Amino acid sequence: MQRILVLGSGQLGLMLAEAGARWGMTIDRLDIDNGGILYGSSGKVHSLDQFSPTDYDIITIEREHIPDTALVNDLRANPGWHGEQALYTLAHRRRQKALLDRLSIPTAAWLPVTAADDLSPVHARLGKDVVLKLAEGGYDGRGQWFMSANRPVAESPLPAGKAAIAEPRIDFDRELSVLGARNRAGQCVFYPLTENVHIEGILRYSIAPAPDSEPVQQVAEDMLGHIMQALGYEGVMAAELFIEGGKLLVNEIAPRVHNSGHWTQTGASLNQFQLHLLALMNSPLTPPVVEGCAGMINLVGLEFKPAWLANADIDVHWYGKSYRPDRKLGHVNLSAASHAELHTRLQHYHELLYGSAARQ
């Protein structure tokens, strides 16, 4: 069985290790920020004294933003390093948007900007309300700012020396995502579209399949498939989408497993972590079977409560992270036979977890 290394020691790497352990695979995680190796799903960090990149057949990532260090460069030299072209292109918003334009995939209009730029021409071309996004870094709403034309240019929040893009603020109807996988042979498979609800830039809950999404399912698959093929990508990839007037726009792309795909742990015959591993190993891919409906509720800024585990009809995942008010600390998966039943159960458990109803 092949040995796999995940760059990053967060929850996505942890869930990849858990998925691989079910198949007898060795999947270790590298803490690329602080140095150290975590073996399997253990939370204990070991020193890198005995670590060698050549110990691994496949190297993958759980995040796009990889530091430029000697260790990472050694890993890049490993023949099993996956996704270099996708990582280079998609981890930088200017290159990502340029790719979408080159592939004629619908996305919001955009302009490159820096902190030194006068935003007046930006508003003239993109409209009164624009969104500034750092070209690199930023997640869960961080590194993004809404700017109105009547706001003084001097109040631009962009850090000096940082590249960014500007986009018009999209008055979208719903936020969706599509997850799919591609193997080295070029075979692609996809999950049903997922509907996502964000609060203050952080994903709060997901529903799959997204209600009334059948008319755009094939369109979304074609978009993501085109991107994966163009980049020669292997593994699971996610595209965050806006639906506006029945049309899809690609908002952002993640070359990895994704928060909006956690529902697959309960609602699909193969979850996204298993599918990622199969694609990396160039195994034949078959579309995951999805019956009924599934949902996911992120546990954001909540303290763990053992009483949650007494609810046999939900699947609790806790990441073992230190507490922070706006931090994703875990998630809960649930399933139902219909959207109506799922909605009722999602509201019930959102109130149980947060003490309030889920936003519609």
Overview of the structural elements:
The chain is of the alpha+beta class and 360 residues long. Helix content is 25%, strand content 28%. It is built from nine helices and 17 strands. The strands form three sheets. Strands 9, 10, 11, 12, 13, 14, 15, 16 and 17 form a nine-stranded antiparallel sheet that branches. Helix 1 crosses helix 8. The radius of gyration is 20 Å and the shape is globular.
What would a concise description of this structure say?
With 360 residues, the chain is an alpha+beta fold. Helices cover 25% and strands 28% of the residues.
Give the oligomeric state. single chain
What's the end-to-end separation, in Å?
45 Å
List low-confidence stretches: none
Order of helices and strands: EHEEEHHHEHEEEEEEEHEEHHEEEH
Largest sheet: 9 strands, antiparallel
Fraction of residues in helices?
Answer: 10-25%
Task: Determine the structural class based on helices, strands and strand pairing.
Answer: alpha+beta
Count the beta strands: 17
Shape: globular
How much β-strand is present in the residues? Answer: 25-35%
Q: What do the pLDDT scores average to?
A: 93
Total count of helical runs of at least 4 residues: 9
Rg to the nearest angstrom?
20 Å
